[in-house]
Amino acid sequence: MNKKIILLLLLVLFLGIVIIISLFCGVDNSDPSQAAVIIWQLRLPRVLLALLVGAGLASAGAVFQALLRNSLAEPYTLGVSSGAALGASLGMLFRLSSIYTTVFAFIGSLLTIFLVYTIAARKRFSNSSLILGGVTLGFLFSSIVLLIIAMVRQEGISNAVIWLMGDLSSASPQAIFLTAVFVSGGILAFFLLGRDVDLICLGEEKAMHIGLDVETIKKILFFIASLVTAACVSASGIIGFVGLIIPHIGRFMFGPKHRVLFIAVSLLGAGFLILCDTIARTVALPLELPVGVITGIFGGIFFLGLLIKAKKW
Amino acid sequence: MVDVKNIYCGYDKKEVIKGVFFSVEKGNFTGIIGPNGAGKTTLFRAMTGALPLYKGTITYRNNDISKISARELAKDMAVIPQIVSVPFSFTVSEFVFMARFAHLGRFQAPGKVDYDAVDQALRSAGVAHLKNRDINELSGGERQMAMLAQGFAQSPKILLLDEPTAHLDIKHQVAIMNILEKLNKERGLTVVVILHDLNLAAEYCNNLILLNEGKIHKKGGVNEVLTQDVIEEVYKTFVAVDRNPVSGKPYCRIVKGNPRVIRGAAQQR
Question: Angle CA(A273)–CA(A276)–CA(A281) in degrees, nearest 5?
Fold first, then answer.
C-alpha cells in the first residue's frame, strides 16, 4: 500500500514538472512583457484543457474497459466521439464560431448517448447490446461526417479534419469550464464507485451474488463515463490513444483495483497529454501538429517498448 | 431456510424447470444431482435470484427472493458458480476481498472485521499462501479454492455451489468437499451443492434432490435416492450399487458394455 502511495506522489511530481515544461517551452520571445502574456493567456488555458481532457479520457477509458469487460474498449467505443464529430462538422459547415462547434459537438454526443442507452435498455443493458448499438451508431455517424467532408469542398471543412485529429489550440474559457465540471465530477463519481467497478469485472451474475445492483450501476457508469467523454471530445476533438492505453499503463503500475487506478490514470493521462501537446506545438516550428497524431506516434512507440520489455501481458 | 414452491422457469419461453417443490432446512448439506440437461443449473440460478420465475415462488426465511435486494441477500447467501472469468490481473486477496462489498457502506473503509473475515476465508480454503498471486495465473484447482475463499469471505449463512469439483483431480475434489463438510458441521453453514459425481454426493450430502427432465424424480436421504433402479431409470445406465467399505454410504459402480446385455448377465448371476 505504501509503495502505491509513493508511486502516486511521483506521478503528481511528474505532472507538475510537465506543466512547468509546457508553460515555458515554445517560441522564444525576448520581450519579457510579451512572454508573460503568452504564458498566462495562451499556454496556461491550453495546459489546463490538456490536463482535464487527458485525465477525463484516461479515467473514462478505464471505466469502459471494466464496464464492457474488454481491454480493447475505450471512451470512443460506444459512438460518443462520432456523434460529437457529426455535431462539430455540422457546426463548421454552417461556419459557426469555435464555441458553437463545442456546443454542437456536445449536442451530437448527448444524442448518441441517449440513442445507445435507449437501444441497450431494451435488452437489460447487456454488454453485447451496448457494444453493437454503440459501434453501429458510431459507424453511421462517422460515415455521415465523411459524406459531409466529401460533398462540401469549401475552405472551412479543413478545420473539420483538424478537429477530427484532435486539437487543443482553441482552448476557450467556456470549453475549459465545461470539461472542468464534467471531468472533475466524473472522476469523483468513479472514485466513489471504485468498489462497484471492481465487482463488475467479475461478470454480471457473480457481481449480483456479491451484492451489486448490476443494471443500475452499469447505467450510472455508462452515463457518467459517456458525459465525461462527450465534454472532452467537444472541447478538443477526437484525441486517440489516451483512453485506450493509459488505463493499461495504470494497471501495469498499480494493479486493477479501481479506486487507486482512477487516481493513477487521471494523473498519467493528464501528464501524458500535456507532454504530447507540448511536443505537438514545438517539434516542427513554426508548424503546429495535431495533438491526436502525436499521442498516437509517441504513445504508440512508448507502449510498444513497454509491451516488448515487460513480463506482463 | 429456502423454500422452493412449485416453480416454473427457463430461457426465452423454453420451460426447463416444471413444477419443482422442496425445502432446504438450516444446517442441511443438500446435493442436487441429475443427468446433463436435467435443469440443475437452471434450478440453481433460480434459487440465487438470477433467473426470473414464470410461476411459483422461492423464499429465503419466508421472504420472496425476488423482492430481496441483491445487497441484503448477499449478506446471507454466497453463490459459487462454475466459472468466474476475470479480465484483469487481480491478486487472490483482492479477489477474495471483493466479497466484503455487501457488508461495507459506500463511504465506509474496510475495518478489522473485514480483514479478519478475508484472512479466515483464505485460511479455510487453504489459499493463504497464494494471496499475492495473480488470480489468472493459478491452476484450475487453486482457482476453484480461491473462488471458495471468496464465497467464505462473504460471511454467508447459506452457500450455493454449482459443480465445485468439476474438472478437478481427486485431491482437490476431496479437499473442497472436506472444507464444506467442516464448515457445515462446525459453523452450521447450510450448503446446497450441484454434483455430477454420485459417489461424492453419497459420501458428503445428507439430503439429495434427483432432478430429471425439469422435475424432481426423487428426493430424500442418500440411501433412498441412490438405488440401482432409480439410477437406471433416470440415467438410462446400468450401475451396480453397493456400499463404500469405509463409510458405509451407497457406492455406484460403473459397468462397461451394453446396458441390456449386462443387466441380463447380472440377473443370471
Answer: 125
How far apart, in whole angstroms, are the C-alpha atoms of residue A213 and residue A16?
39
Residue B93 pLDDT > 70: yes
The answer, for B130 touching chain A at a CB cutoff of 8 Å, is no
Question: Mean pLDDT of all residues in chain B?
Answer: 92
Q: What is the ipTM metric for this complex?
A: 0.90
Query: pLDDT of A185-233, one tens digit each?
Result: 999 999 999 999 999 999 999 999 999 999 999 999 999 999 999 999 9
Question: Do the Cβ atoms of B89 and A255 come within 8 Å?
Answer: yes
**Predicted local distance difference test score (pLDDT) of residue A31:** 72
Residues A313/A307, Cβ–Cβ less than 8 Å: yes
For position A59, what pLDDT does the model report? Answer: 97
Amino acid at B59: T
Residue A27: how many other CB atoms lie within 10 Å: 10
Nearest to B101 among A203, A205, A212 (CB): A212
- Which of B89, B98, B106 comes nearest A199 by C-beta? B98
Q: What are phi and psi of B45, to 5 degrees?
A: -65, -35
- The whole-number pLDDT of residue B154 equals 96
The CATH number of residue A45's host domain is 1.10.3470.10
Sign, CA dihedral B57-B55-B46-B191, equals: positive
Residue type, B214: G
Select the residue from B45, B65, B85, B88 to test the A interface by mutation, using most A Cβ atoms within 10 A.
B88
Q: Is the CB of residue B190 less than 8 Å from the CB of residue B26?
A: yes
What length is written for chain B?
Answer: 269
Host domain of residue A202: 3-310
Q: What is the pLDDT of residues A49-67, one digit of tens each?
A: 999 999 999 999 999 999 9
Q: Which three cell numbers stand for residue B102?
A: 455487501
Integer Cα distance of A170 and B225 in angstroms: 77
Q: Is B206 on the interface with A (CB under 8 A)?
A: no
For A151, the grid coordinates are 460533398
* Cβ contact, residue pair B73, A214, below 8 Å: no
Nearest CA in chain B to A313: B89
Q: Are B215 and B225 in contact (CB under 8 A)?
A: no
Q: If residue B2 lies in a helix (H) or strand (E), which one and from where to where?
A: strand B2-11
B241 Cβ under 8 Å from any chain A Cβ: no
- Cα A140 to Cα A103, A112, B156, B173, distances in angstroms: 21, 11, 49, 52
Taking each helix axis from N to C terminus, what angle separates A242-254 and A291-309, rounded to the nearest 10 degrees? 30
Q: CB under 8 Å to A101, separation ≥6 — which residues?
A: A88, A91, A92, A163
Q: What percent of chain B has pLDDT over 70?
A: 96
- With beta carbons less than 8 A apart as the criterion, state whether B153 and B96 touch: yes
A122 in reach of chain B (CB within 8 A)? no
H or E element, residue A53: helix A44-67
Q: What's the rounded Cα separation, in Å, for the pair B35 and B198?
A: 10
Nearest to A202 among B89, B98, B107 (CB): B98
Q: Cβ-count burial of B133 within 10 angstroms (0-12 exposed, 13-18 middle, 19+ buried)?
A: middle
For chain A, what is the domain count? 1
